[in-house]
């Protein structure tokens, strides 16, 4: 062993035999036993999450991108199906696997059993295993004592090695010395910190597993309660859809951890934040990884050609489409148009025979997409109404949390928007909505009521546009927000000679302004509102409601719970609502005219969050969702 270790260097390709780590293998039966044990612990966060999947609240889409399904049966892994990222099959979570846990022998001496290691990560492992089909019967875990910062350092090191030196390739002298320097630094630091196993051992085992086994992912598990474990994916294609991770509970066992702490670093924000090892391919590693869509019968190796993957859009219930695959042919070039299950339309088969064979398993999740049932209700509607109703049935209603997440993503690294841009478009939608419903000749005087958050900013932008459209807005901001953006927006309004009530205007002053107002724009509270209503709004809201003036509410009527609506009965009841980005859960029962605005969501994001937004026409910034009466301008 010592002799072999001499050949080891950070730049040459190690082999597993060089590793001094002990490998404990948990076979299928042991894994099954662990899953059974895990199921005894119901009523935890995972159980709730899976229940939510069942109610189609998460990780589900009635269209073909459905990634997790559970339609029937008990809470048991065999009833929960995952769409695999590598073959597109819908397979049950109970397809067990073999776990190889590499650990230092001192851990065994310390009586650290490897069973709890696997048990702690079981829901995540089940999910990951279920997400992968090809070559993933084996899961590799390396157990360490790394702390958070150390885990990050080690992650960066592996990324560097895999990018430039994997396979013993030569790289620029500057990179070589960088790798050697990082290697020495990590050895030195981690040895000093007495981390087990020492860094060279983690390094050997990690790269040797990559080299010899080429798994879709490797987990570096940390035994430290103050740390997280890292998953390394070996190709971007192997990173599961981030929809899966939305709301997936964090598994951190440390009771003192912060909210965003995770047991395993799941790539919650998609490929961009996943630890992906960029491995140079070529020579014996020259095989390009390619997504294969395969026949859903688990024993069949037939895959479908790329061009036929768009089957769902083009073929209507294609039970009869031809099949040319020889299912015994294991080559990836085997290609067929496939038969789509005519009921759920979620899976494909190479032949009727395999469809029949898979039926016992597939029947557990096979169901008609829910939206199809709606058609019956719609008989007798006009074509336009049908389209509108269809829009309402399928549009996604957002929880407060999801609305905030979308907002953050729009302004995050991927979305790259600034708040000014979003607010400008949001405010423009509000002004356009008011203009569409309330004619400026009859409803010239608009009281724009602004709150202390971003919605107040939307109101200020709307006031400016309304002035441009020929209205006479007055701003009322009883609690001006402190951010610079509100001050700038207010200054822009001042420059246009838009009147403002002083923030400390008395209730009498507000009452008198309301009496000389034609229509109110309610831009007080948005998706961050949490009841009960505090001063000064506890006096302002009832006054607005009792004014009997028409009201246009922005995003959600002020005072309504974002998810439960006007259950406390203290909110404003508007005539018109303009939802931004997508409607919120709380407005499902809203009866007035409902518009959608905030035309800034990129298509990719709309699809990722399954928003099912309606089409905006031409250059319009708004689209009407429902109509209680024929569209008309008042
Ligand atoms: N992507 C999008 O869709 C975009 C959305 N945009 C818009 O942003 C809106 C969300 O903005 P947001 O997060 O700043 O929150 P929002 O609701 O305006 O104000 C919260 C503030 O209200 C207050 N407050 C809360 N509860 C209270 C109570 N009970 N009683 C009294 N006060 C209470 C509290 O203030 P505090 O008391 O802390 O000073 C809190 O900070 C969203 O709905 C949409 O209109 C666009 O601008 C951009 C793109
Ligand atoms: K509002």
| Alpha carbon gap, first and last residue | 87 Å
What spatial order of strands do you see in the largest sheet?
17-16-15-18-19-20-21-22
Helix percentage range = 25-40%
What average pLDDT do the residues reach? 82
What is the CATH topology of the largest domain? Rossmann fold
Report the sheet with the most strands, covering strand number, pairing sense and barrel closure: 8 strands, mixed
| Helical segment count | 21
The structural class is alpha/beta
- Bound ligands: ligand NPW, potassium ion
Low-confidence stretches: 1-6, 282-286, 306-336, 370-393
Tell me what the CATH architecture of the largest domain is: 3-Layer(aba) Sandwich
> Can you tell me the CATH superfamily of the largest domain?
YjeF N-terminal domain
- Quantity of strands, as a count: 22
Classify the beta-strand content into a percent band: 5-15%
CATH hierarchy, class of the largest domain: Alpha Beta
Radius of gyration: 29 Å
Overall 3D shape = elongated
> Structurally, how many domains make up the residues?
3
């Amino acid at each position: 062993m010592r002799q072999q270790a001499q050949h080891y260097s950070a730049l040459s390709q190690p082999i597993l035999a060089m590793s001094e780590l002990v490998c404990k293998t948990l076979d299928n039966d042991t894994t099954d036993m662990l899953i059974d044990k895990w199921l005894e612990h119901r009523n935890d966060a995972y159980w709730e999450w899976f229940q939510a999947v069942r109610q189609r609240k998460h990780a589900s889409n009635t269209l073909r991108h459905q990634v997790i399904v559970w339609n029937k049966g008990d809470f048991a892994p065999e009833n929960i199906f995952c769409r695999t990222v590598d073959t597109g099959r819908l397979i049950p979570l109970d397809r067990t696997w073999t776990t190889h846990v590499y650990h230092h022998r001192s851990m065994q001496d310390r009586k650290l059993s490897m069973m709890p290691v696997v048990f702690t990560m079981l829901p995540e492992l089940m999910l990951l295993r279920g997400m992968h089909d090809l070559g993933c019967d084996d899961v590799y875990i390396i157990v360490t004592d790394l702390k958070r910062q150390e885990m990050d350092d080690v992650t960066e090191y592996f990324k560097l090695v895999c990018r430039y030196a994997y396979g013993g390739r030569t790289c620029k002298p500057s990179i070589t010395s960088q790798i050697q320097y990082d290697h020495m630094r990590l050895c030195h630091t981690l040895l000093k910190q007495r981390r087990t196993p020492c860094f060279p051992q983690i390094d050997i085992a990690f790269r040797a597993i990559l080299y010899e086994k080429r798994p879709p992912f490797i987990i570096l598990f940390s035994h430290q309660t103050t740390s997280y474990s890292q998953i390394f994916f070996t190709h971007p294609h192997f990173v599961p859809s981030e929809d899966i991770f939305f709301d997936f509970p964090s598994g951190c066992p440390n009771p003192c951890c912060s909210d965003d702490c995770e047991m395993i670093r799941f790539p919650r924000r998609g490929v961009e934040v996943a630890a992906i090892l960029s491995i140079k391919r070529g020579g014996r590693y020259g095989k390009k990884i390619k997504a294969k869509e395969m026949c859903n019968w688990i024993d069949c190796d037939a895959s479908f050609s790329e061009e036929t993957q768009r089957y769902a859009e083009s073929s209507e219930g294609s039970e009869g489409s031809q099949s040319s695959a020889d299912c015994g042919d294991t080559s990836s070039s085997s290609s067929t148009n496939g038969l789509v299950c005519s009921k759920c339309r979620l899976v494909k088969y190479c032949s009727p025979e395999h469809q029949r064979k898979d039926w016992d398993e597939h029947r557990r999740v096979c169901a008609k997409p829910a939206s199809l049932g709606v058609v019956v209700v719609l008989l007798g509607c006009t074509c336009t109404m049908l389209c509108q109703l269809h829009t309402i049935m399928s549009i996604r209603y957002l929880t407060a949390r999801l609305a905030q997440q979308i907002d953050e993503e729009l302004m995050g690294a991927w979305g790259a928007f600034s708040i000014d841009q979003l607010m400008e478009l949001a405010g423009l939608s509000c002004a356009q909505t008011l203009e569409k419903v309330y004619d400026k000749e009859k409803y010239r005087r608009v009281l724009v009521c602004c709150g202390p958050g971003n919605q107040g900013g939307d109101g200020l932008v709307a006031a400016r546009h309304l002035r441009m459209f020929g209205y006479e807005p007055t701003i009322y901001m009883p609690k001006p927000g402190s951010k610079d953006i509100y001050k700038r927006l207010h200054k822009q309004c001042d420059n246009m000679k838009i009147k403002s009530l002083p923030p400390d205007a008395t209730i009498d002053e507000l009452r008198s302004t309301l009496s000389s107002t034609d229509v109110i724009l309610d831009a007080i509270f948005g998706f961050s509102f949490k009841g009960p209503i505090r001063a000064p709004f506890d006096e302002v809201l009832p006054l607005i409601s009792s004014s009997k003036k028409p009201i246009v509410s922005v995003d959600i009527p002020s005072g309504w719970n974002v998810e439960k609506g006007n259950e406390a009965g203290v909110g404003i009841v508007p005539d018109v609502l303009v939802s931004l980005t997508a409607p919120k859960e709380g407005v499902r029962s809203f009866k007035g005219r409902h518009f959608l605005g905030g035309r800034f969501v990129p298509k990719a994001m709309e699809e990722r969050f399954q928003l099912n937004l309606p089409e905006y026409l031409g250059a319009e910034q708004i689209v009407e969702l429902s109509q209680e009466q024929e569209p008309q301008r008042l």
